[in-house]
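User: New here, any thoughts?
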Amino acid sequence: MTDDAATVFADAKAYTDEPRLHAAMAHLRAHDPVPRVDHGPYRPFFAITKHADIMDVERDNNLWLSEPRPVLTTAAADDVARAQLESGAGLRTLIHMDDPHHRKVRAIGADWFRPKALRDLQTRVDELAKRYVDRMRDIGPECDFVEEVAVGFPLYVILSLLGLPEEDFPRMHQLTQELFGADDVEYRRGATLEERMATLLDFFAYFNELTASRRAHPTEDLASAIANGLIDGEPLSDVDTASYYVIVASAGHDTTKDAISGGLRALIENPGELERLRREPELMGTAVEEMIRWTTPVKEFMRTAAEDTSVRGVPIAKGESVYLAYTSGNRDEEVFDDPDTFDVGRFPNKHLSFGYGVHFCLGAALARMEMRSFFAELIPRLDSIELAGTPELAATVFVGGLKHLPIRYSLR
């Protein structure tokens, strides 16, 4: 049973079957919290299922390195990515980097996500939240909430922050779906590795043009800050610049879309909690944290041991990799009371959805702001809401959530 349970980490379809997924993870936490997973087409790894162990790995970024295997990809994709980077090409985002280079690159965009910058952005986010709730009202009484509402709101926020033209937003959405949806037949561009890599090449072609434009004619936006960022007095490499854009433009909206849509589904399926939040709007902050824990849009990151070590008594040799199972850590019974209960007043809520340590999500505060604004606008205007069909989850081993959420509602 333990061997069968451990295969969920290497099975994209497992994330579309929540009862199976959470039962398997609960079994592993209780009986084999650091299983070795050897399940093709992936190279072997150790899954870290306990909250405390995940935090310990995240804390020690000298022992546990992001390079050369920051996320779970197939052995073939690992080899291609490594060859591309060795040749000066390929994707190298913040999640691929280790300190001290990581810290220097992160600093280029950090000011755009600090409290002062976000306070300046609050009015715009509130305006966009109202626009998308109004849109929801106008297209009602039924809609696919993911496709018609949840995608557009955070996409508009982050791409506006970057300074991209609105006519390019659909293209960015499609490329993001293809990038994170490579394991989902509805989202992926093709079945072969070459077809999937073409998505990344399209991203790079777009952002290389953007870099040239912003270096020639800087503007007051995040794209200009990235294009003209300096490391030790030198411009970012072309790879690092394009990769910076890719992670901000894709993860900067797609993960928030997953949390918003999954959060709404949780409220629909737990009407008592929806009514509680309606009666006690001061719970919005804790409700948003619970939605983020509940959905866990980023399922995992990988780390590689820089020297021989162990986790919970399990020996892990230098060069071997661990899989940080955030979805499992966010349901750890030793940390969360009744972890399988959705509780809008949950406090404390030490979820791991934004990571921990030096790689803590750069855009976490923005995501929280967007979610608070959206639900603060939506919930007082809702007269009724229910599912109008079966929710559909994306197949993934990295980032994902709902791809369809059909709802029926009455909205003022």
